[in-house]
């Protein structure tokens, strides 16, 4: 398929804390590649953060700054993409309202994430419209910019299909305005947390993009290894080892040798961790150094976001004008 720079891609992340390596390899790594070939708009989804975090918003502003800093440090280039704040483009809210008028409740209730998180999140009250209706807001985020593609993993396909259904319903009722965004399936390198569970801030088992080299080394030293391996020369079982999972990402060229040494009891866990830590520090050094450079410029992040806000608004305003026109809600007494 021919790639056109004017094919638009839209995606966002919620500002819920420092980005960790799971976030990086799950999404951001692909964003950085996509910005070279597509017209990319990446937004901080601060309104989406309220769907589950509305009771305590004390950290949200700091989290916004941290998130954008992580993006820029990792390689998003404001000369190649637009980086903006969702709540600074009010058209997101207007389109969300209008789309909510045409979206059947049954579509929202059947959303897999809605059911799963209702069952899993027990410490927060999320039986509110904001949580139930977030797919409408998500749809407005995408349709507002007439995105051709949305980068997703296979587990997110049902969410995107709902956006496509809403676009079809709108077009049927009022006329063709929105293209149906197609999924841009992305490969994600999966990393466990340092304790072997899913990497998650709630588990306290993350390695963050903002971690210093010393912090990375300390966290690697605490990683869970093969519990059945007691002595250095005991044969290991790499498939159950957290360190081995990280080696597959950070030392792909040496993975056969590492596996052989582990299975043959030729390398101890401490030595294996040191090898991993050194590779990770070397690999993550450009990100950490770029972050320090950004932090030395107090206004840099704000300037980038304000520029992105302006770019996003210029597109969003045109879309909303078109939406109002086809819906016949653009009354003007002088017409």
> Main beta sheet, described?
3 strands, parallel
Overall mean pLDDT: 92
What fraction of residues sit in β-strands? 5-15%
What is the radius of gyration computed over CA atoms, rounded to a whole number of angstroms? Answer: 23 Å
Q: Looking at the structure, what is the overall shape? A: elongated
Query: Approximately how much helix is present in the residues?
Result: 40-55%
Distance between the termini: 45 Å
Give the count of helical stretches: 14
Please mark out the parts with pLDDT under 50 across 5 or more consecutive residues, or reply none. none
Please report the total strand number as a whole number. Answer: 5
Structural class: mainly alpha
Write the H/E string, N to C.
Answer: EHEHHEHHHHHEHEHHHHH
Biggest sheet strand order reads 1-2-3
């Amino acid at each position: 398929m021919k790639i056109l720079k004017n094919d638009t891609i839209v995606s966002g992340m919620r500002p819920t804390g420092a980005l960790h390596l799971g976030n990086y390899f799950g999404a951001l790594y692909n964003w950085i590649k996509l910005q070279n070939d597509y017209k990319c708009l990446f937004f901080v989804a601060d309104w989406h953060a309220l769907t589950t975090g509305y009771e305590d918003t004390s950290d949200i502003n700091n989290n916004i700054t941290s998130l954008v800093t992580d993006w820029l440090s990792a390689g998003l280039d404001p000369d190649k993409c637009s980086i903006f704040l969702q709540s600074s483009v009010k058209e997101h809210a207007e389109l969300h309202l209008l789309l909510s008028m045409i979206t059947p409740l049954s579509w929202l209730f059947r959303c897999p994430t809605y059911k799963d998180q209702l069952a899993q999140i027990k410490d927060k009250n999320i039986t509110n419209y904001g949580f139930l209706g977030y797919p409408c807001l998500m749809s407005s985020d995408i349709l507002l910019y007439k995105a051709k593609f949305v980068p997703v993993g296979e587990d997110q396909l049902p969410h995107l299909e709902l956006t496509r259904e809403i676009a079809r319903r709108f077009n049927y009722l009022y006329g063709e305005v929105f293209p149906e965004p197609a999924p841009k399936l992305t490969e994600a390198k999966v990393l466990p947390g340092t304790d072997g569970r899913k990497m998650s801030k709630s588990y306290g088992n993350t390695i963050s993009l903002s971690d210093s080299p010393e912090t990375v080394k300390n966290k690697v030293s605490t990683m869970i290894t093969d519990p059945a391996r007691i002595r250095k020369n005991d044969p290991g079982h790499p498939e159950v080892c957290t360190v081995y999972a990280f080696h597959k990402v950070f030392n792909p060229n040496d993975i056969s040798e590492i596996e052989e040494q582990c299975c043959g009891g030729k390398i101890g866990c401490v030595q294996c961790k040191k090898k991993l830590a050194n590779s990770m520090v070397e690999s993550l050094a450009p990100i950490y150094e770029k972050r320090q450079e950004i932090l030395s410029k107090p206004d840099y992040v704000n300037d980038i976001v304000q520029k992105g806000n302006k770019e996003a608004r210029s597109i969003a305003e045109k879309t909303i004008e078109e939406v109002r026109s086809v819906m016949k809600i653009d009354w003007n007494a002088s017409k």
